[in-house]
Specification:
The complex is a heterodimer of chains A (about 900) and B (about 280). With about 900 residues, chain A is an alpha+beta fold. Chain A is built from 23 helices and 33 strands. Classes of the chains: A alpha+beta (about 900), B alpha+beta (about 280).
Chain lengths: ~900, ~280
């Protein structure tokens, strides 16, 4: 068989399909691009993530590693093929268990699981882990995925729809879940408008260089089709962006000098088939590499940015009391130092999106966590008025902070403006890892003192945070760290300083916790030393120092609704049980040692002392449709569901009657960015206020009391209160400009106060609290660590949806475990998912979540944020458990086996 | 792009004789090496040749066809000497990789961390190479000439891996160390095959992977263990003897000194596991 070119025939999901595909083409490309079966996802093109798993004659394979020619003789089954007319039993089990968060890995998980279930209908957890070990998930921590697969044989009853007033607290399926499990969800790479062209970027192979671009016209002319090249010179607006406007310093494309590897210098736009034929490495550019430094170990000669001497972006500072005196006169002082690595967000969806002109408006449908920020920055770069840019967030296949920053939006926007056609861009895995933000590497020292009874007397913290080439969220990290470095403990004397410093490393930005996870590692590990010096049990020591209602934080803020003591109290029994288990195991001797560790967290929800409002609109149309305009991007965490749960109970109508609109900058008011654990609290409060306002309006129109019951029947809204009843005929009411006959729109902005020169003020209106216990086993000869159990108690104020809350905890623990044990991004070395390791299904501990409800006076219905909190205690709890087990004092992450073994030997 | 998918070996060898072809089997290493949407270059896909797939008996041993996958190894009925290879097969990448990836391809990629190599070294495996004009058989240790380098000539195809009956004896074990459970590249690995006679090691074959440019046997240690009681074998492993033939590197997965420590311990544990298994069956 000799097939230079031609068409191939495939049997996909039982149907015969023909595609003009080269025989060596990846099956994933054939399915998505040629057959338009976008349910199969591509995360790495290297067999490292398994998102593209399909069945080939019933066996699971990575479609990205399968030549089209080989697939053409086989039966191919994709996620679309198992869905049939609706969700099958496995897919329903995924919904019932909350096994899909962002949904990007879901098709791959479902296919891998389908292959297992065909042979083994009632698998054990271990069998499930073996079957899905090749599919990476970054959101869920795998626990609920394994639950769902084990439970796939259970016939599910129809889900009970919570009554009005019962939505908050109910374990309901996510409202946007179905498309994620049947493969119809539209992620950034899944929408291909008619006539779309592709965009690819030319990127720097150097960490620092100046460059000159050669004759691009002649270069483009050699291509087999029309090719257009655009550079910084083509940018019509201001070629500078940044998430925090006063620090904006990043070009959409570098003009003459690059400051990090992977920085874009040009885009190439053409038909997909033409681009596929072009060798982008032949692009005419001359590089002049410059001296570079990517870590804080080397001091540079010159600043990366002229306006920032010593490469210092910003210093964050908080001080209270006389800490030097406190530490000089206290019974016990412990100190420590710690170094962490660059950590990659490693969402399974590389950045992708499409831009197209629609009249005089530029539409951009791409992955994002911050649609309005995208709109404003893209408009400025492209020289457009803000209202002429429309951002339609695609489903985000994971974000965790990195999709807060612009990535491809200005590039595809420019291409669409210049060509007048839809232009699509899909980052390769390497491109995504090279060019987008990371967690800040930190080098930190701390000294903490306590009195003879174990009460904390003072703490000094100092940290350098490698903020990489551009500002991004570096200022936020530098400010958040000193505010939070005390942990949720009463610390009367305190001085904390955090510096964000530039290097030629990847830009460090937002990553779940904004630097607080790094600081917590140092504080919580030093706390174990102090507990030992004070002769106290480690949990008891933390409980003794836990912040109480009415205490003042290190910023001088009087705190209310403080739940850390309740979290620690809830862990007391599990703690002693875990200690007993470890002691019993260790008594048997052997090369393995078990240990138990604990660590706490606190975290302020929302921007630090700066406005960050959210606005929610709820409206009823003349035909009785109840819409909620929900502008908070749901990147898997569940904003679509929990915000609607809150609105439903506040309005008094069943959640099932709500239709979700948005997010879309043309359709939804601004709900700010999905970051800082702010959406459930801030957008949730806006939803509460809007729903309450709408209810007040309805009650006033019908002259009914507060306890009246609402029912929406077709075009009639029925209000009953006892025996009284009133009908509102919706079609009879006048429509407002939004098309509603009844509506309300409310904005909520947290009441905060900016910090003074000593970091004193009210940086956040609401804080969440938590503590976690890790139980680990350390191989004393190989230095390997297995985390067996995590017990996590988190105070969320009020549980809106326990299933989604558990999902956040399990996912946060997975990321914390990865950070503790395996994750280290090395520029130029780990730009793929086989050298950069994230936890697989087989690396996860058993997790017990304990949800604590200490109501917050400010949070809607008493609730607090949770998204970032969950990651903070995990790494320090694991490190404290490693030390308890083995004596090993880890001072650098990740705790890879060779580092753990060296630390064990250092104790001897 | 030219893409050939012949159905018999002679046709494949004829195509290969023209030169310049990339041989494609499981493709689990070929696609990750490119960012293109299709395999670059003229491709010779050998997976439609039935004669190349599967494990069969020859007159004096075993023949593992060139396109035999890791899943084929897991499900094959093989003597206990091959247990090491089966253990390696279950730990290669993921189920998806095991379904597509081939044992021979693992040898041809010749990564220092190739999981098949230590196992097949302990089995004294040989590699059958055919061209349009000749057939030759090389010991695996001579087939692998360096990291990502083999003795395969441009016109040659690896058609099979051969294991003689004389080496398919005894029991074997394999241990791999990585920083996570699935989808992991080894920091170090050890394969051990022992022939036991009444509790005494009659013959030992030991190999270490990911600690030198090419995985290597440990002949000195093998000699020391020969004649020893199986129960004392693990305790007899001295780190210096393990270290001598190794030239480990420092990289992001582990430092060189750690690799030697780990290799030593993996050997001890493999020997202990075999001793424990022997006690259980005794």
């Amino acid at each position: 068989m000799n097939r230079p070119f031609g068409s191939l025939t495939f049997t996909v999901n039982g149907e015969r399909r023909t595609a003009a595909a080269a025989p060596g083409r990846r099956l994933s490309e054939v399915l998505r691009e040629d057959l338009k079966l976008f349910g199969t996802k591509v995360g790495c093109d290297a067999g490292d993530c398994g998102a593209c798993t399909v069945l080939l004659d019933g066996a699971p394979v990575c479609a990205c590693l399968t030549p089209a020619a080989r697939a053409s003789g086989a039966e191919i089954t994709t996620v679309e093929g198992i869905s049939g007319q609706g969700a099958n039993a496995l897919q329903r089990s995924f919904l019932r268990h909350g096994a899909a968060q962002c949904g990007i890995c879901t098709p791959g998980m479902l296919m891998a699981a389908s292959a297992l279930l065909a042979e083994t209908p009632h698998p054990t957890r271990a069998e499930v882990e073996d079957a899905i070990g090749g599919v990476l998930c970054r959101c869920t921590g795998y626990t609920k995925i394994v639950d769902a697969i084990c439970d796939a044989a259970t016939v599910d009853a129809d889900e009970a729809i919570p009554e009005p007033g019962r939505a908050v607290g109910a374990r309901i399926e996510r409202l946007d879940g179905r498309p994620k499990v049947v493969g119809t969800e539209v992620f950034g790479a899944d929408y291909l408008p008619q006539g779309a062209m592709d965009v690819r970027a030319i990127r720097s192979p150097h960490h620092a260089a100046s460059f000159t671009i050669g004759d691009t016209v002649s270069w483009a002319a050699q291509a087999p089709g029309k090719v257009q090249v655009f550079t910084a010179a083509d940018i019509p607006g201001i070629n500078c962006f940044g998430t925090i406007p006063p620090f904006a310093d990043q070009p959409a494309m570098a003009a003459s000098r690059v400051r990090l590897r992977g920085e874009a210098i040009a885009i190439v736009v053409a038909e997909t088939a033409t681009l596929d034929e072009i060798d982008l490495s032949s692009f005419p550019v001359t590089w002049h590499p410059e001296p570079c430094f990517v870590s804080l170990d080397t001091e540079p000669d010159a600043p990366l940015h002229e306006t920032r001497p010593d490469n210092l972006l910003i210093t964050g500072f908080v001080q209270t009391g006389d800490v030097d005196a406190a530490l000089a006169n206290t019974a016990h002082v412990a100190s420590g130092e710690f170094e962490t690595s660059y950590v990659e967000h490693a969402y399974i969806e590389p950045e992708a999106g499409v831009a197209w002109p629609e009249g005089h408006t530029l539409c951009i449908q791409a992955c994002t966590q911050a649609p309005v920020m995208d709109r404003d920055d893209t408009a400025r770069i492209l020289g457009l008025p803000e209202e002429k840019v429309r951002i339609i967030p695609a489903a985000a296949g994971g974000g965790f902070g990195a999709k807060l920053d612009l990535s491809l939006q200005p590039l595809i926007g420019l291409a669409a403006l210049k060509t007048g056609r839809p232009c699509r861009m899909i980052y390769s895995r390497a491109e995504s890892m090279m060019s987008t933000t990371k967690r800040h590497p930190a080098k930190m020292t701390a000294r903490i003192g306590c009195d003879a009874g174990g009460k904390i007397t003072g703490m000094v913290f100092d940290g350098d945070f490698n903020t990489g080439a551009y500002a991004s969220w570096g200022p936020t990290v530098a400010v958040r760290v000193p505010v939070h470095a005390s942990g949720p403990y009463k610390t009367p004397a305190y001085r904390a300083k955090a510096r964000a410093k530039h290097t030629n490393g990847p830009t460090a930005g937002a990553f779940r916790g904004f630097g607080v996870p790094q600081a917590a590692i140092l504080q919580e590990t030093v706390y174990d030393d102090l507990a030992e010096k004070a002769g106290l049990d480690r949990l008891a020591f933390r409980r003794l120092n836990a912040l109480q209602d009415g205490d003042r934080s290190v910023c001088g803020q009087e705190l209310h609704g403080v739940g850390i003591a309740a979290c620690l109290d809830a862990l007391r029994t599990p703690w002693h049980r875990a200690l007993d288990r470890a002691a019993e195991f260790n008594a048997a001797g052997g090369q393995a040692r078990r240990g138990v560790g604990i660590a706490s967290c606190w975290y302020g929800c929302g921007n630090t002392g700066l406005p960050n409002p959210s606005t929610i609109r709820i409206g009823i149309t003349p035909d009785g449709t109840l819409n909620i305009h929900q502008g908070a991007t749901d990147i898997g965490q569940g904003a679509n569901t929990v915000v609607t749960q809150i609105a439903a109970d506040a309005l008094g109508l069943p959640i099932a009657q709500f239709e979700l609109i948005g997010p879309d900058t043309h359709l939804t008011p601004d709900c700010g960015k999905t970051s800082a654990s702010r959406q459930t609290y801030i957008t949730g409060k806006a939803a509460l206020l809007a729903a309450q306002a709408l209810r007040r309006d309805i009650l006033a129109r019908s002259n009914m009391g507060e306890d009246a019951r609402l029912r929406l029947h077709g075009r009639t809204l029925v209000i009953t209160d006892g025996t009284a009843s009133h009908d509102i005929h919706l079609a009879d009411l006048p429509e407002n400009p939004h098309g509603y006959v009844l509506s309300a729109e409310e904005t909520y902005d947290p009441p905060t106060e900016g910090l003074d020169e000593n970091g004193q003020g009210k940086p956040y209106a609401v804080y969440g609290y938590g503590a976690q216990i890790a139980e680990v086993e350390v191989d004393m000869v190989l230095g390997t660590v297995k985390v067996h159990n995590m017990t996590a108690a988190h105070d969320v104020g009020r549980v809106v949806n326990p299933m989604l809350a558990e999902g956040q905890i399990e996912g946060g623990i997975a990321q914390g475990l990865g950070m503790a044990l395996m994750e280290e991004y090395i520029p130029g070395r780990t730009e793929n998912l086989h050298d950069y390791l994230i936890p697989t299904a087989g690396d996860m501990p058993s997790i017990e979540s304990i949800l604590i409800e200490v109501p917050d006076p400010e949070g809607p219905m008493g609730l607090k944020g949770l998204g970032e909190h969950v990651l903070i205690p995990t790494a320090p709890a694991i490190l404290n458990a490693i030390r308890h087990a083995s004596g090993a004092r880890i001072t650098r992450l990740p705790a890879l086996p060779h580092r753990v073994l060296a630390a064990i030997r250092a104790t001897r | 792009m030219t893409y050939h998918r012949p159905t018999n070996v002679d046709e494949a060898l004829g195509i290969l004789a023209d030169g310049g072809f990339c041989v494609a089997a499981g493709c689990t290493d070929l696609y990750p090496a490119t960012t293109a949407k299709a395999l670059p270059g003229p491709v010779l896909d050998i997976t439609a040749i039935p004669a190349l797939r599967g494990i069969s008996r020859t007159g004096d041993g075993w023949r593992i066809g060139a396109t035999t996958t890791w899943t084929d190894i897991v499900t094959a009925d093989l003597p206990p000497a091959f247990d090491c290879l089966k253990l390696a097969a279950r730990e290669i990448g993921s189920v998806q990789i095991q379904t597509a990836g081939t044992v021979a391809g693992n040898l041809c990629t010749a990564s220092p961390a190739a999981d098949a190599v230590p196992c097949l070294l302990t089995l004294d495996a040989q590699v059958e190479l055919r061209s349009a004009t000749s057939t030759r058989v090389l010991p695996l240790s001579r087939f692998l000439t360096g990291p990502r380098q083999t003795a395969r000539a441009p016109g040659e195809l690896v058609t099979a891996i051969l294991v003689a009956d004389g080496s398919a004896r005894g029991t074997s074990h394999f241990l791999k160390l990585g920083a996570r459970k699935y989808l992991v590249i080894s920091i170090a690995m050890a394969a051990v095959r022992l022939e036991i006679d009444r509790g005494v090691i009659a013959r030992a074959a030991l190999a270490i992977g990911a600690c030198s440019p090419v995985a290597t046997r440990l002949p000195d240690l093998e000699r020391i263990l020969t004649g020893q009681s199986l129960d004392r074998a693990a305790a007899s492993v001295v780190e210096d003897q393990v270290a001598a033939p190794l030239t480990p590197i420092d990289d992001m997965r582990g430092d060189a000194a750690y690799r030697v420590d780990a290799a030593t311990e993996l050997l001890r544990r493999s020997l202990a596991a075999l001793a424990s298994a022997a006690r259980e069956t005794a």
